[in-house]
Amino acid sequence: MFNRNLLIAALAWLAICATGIEVRRVSAFAQEAPAKTWKPRRINKAIELLEDGQPIYYIQGYGGYSEGKALAKTWADYILVDLEQNALDFTKMREFMQGLVDGGPTPSGHRTPAVICTLPVLGLDRETVRSGLWVAQQVLACGVHGLYLCHARSPEAVRAFIQAVRYPIHQQAIGELGEGLRGYGSQIYAAKIWSVDPIEYFKMADVWPLNPKGELVIGLRIEDRQALANCEASIKVPGVCFAEWGPRDMGLSYGLLGGQADPPFPKVLQEAGDRVLAACKASKVFFLDNVVPENVEKRIDEGVRIGAGRLQEAAEKGRRYTKRKMPW
Fold first, then answer.
1. How far from chain centre, in Å, is Cα 64?
2. HSE-up of 243 (CA within 13 Å, CB side)?
3. Domains of the chain
4. pTM > 0.90: yes or no
5. Which of left, alpha, beta for 140 (phi over 0: left; psi -120 to 50: alpha)?
């Protein structure tokens, strides 16, 4: 027999449950609210933080659309994609960038984390870089935010690399670097990833901090004896944003095995790292090095501004130490 009072009671209970669910949803949203209030002023999250005097931290990634989507809200400020040792697959790189877009934005409100790629084009000399400039240009056309030049052995190689990643419209230090070599058409997919007009991409896709309005960063890996010998001149080239000393490859260069990345180092490696750090400080270039939870504060005090944290715990500790305000 139909019981009207029972039905009314049941409906009332469902309403209360639904309200409780909504309250919990509002409460969860409220916990995220501080991140929602951040107003990004740049495409490149890493640049925005460095401009504010804040160290940045990265995580490694490589893959297609699914991995990009999974990493879209990473705790890291930028994603290092290794195209030097992994397969050089431009289609996969484009899909990775689209996955970041579709999985975003970041908790800080940026469309994607910054993405910086190593390349299988080594900075052995100017001719080697010039012959492989097409690789750098193809990767930039995927919409990434920066590139490394690995084994950067000479300032001539660095200048050729930076020239290859610029458009001819950008004039800063053109007398030393030469006219940019990127061409029309390279902006189409990248502008879509950045969600800007293609004409605006032309203006923004330049190297920072040489161009204060640029959204691309160029890093050097001073990771062998030959590169170390010229590191002061290479790091000084206009357009370089950061440099690192690559302890594992540096060790191989000195005949050492084991792939050691954290101290204590053999004397020859410690001296190499100190020399690259000093060269970065002298040229006002950001220094990248490994940090762990146990030493991140000390490393920041020593001058590390880009932390290869590997552990979220190290990044969180470093962010608290520098009183960072920007959310992930």
1. 17
2. 35
3. 40-321 (3.20.20.60)
4. no
5. alpha
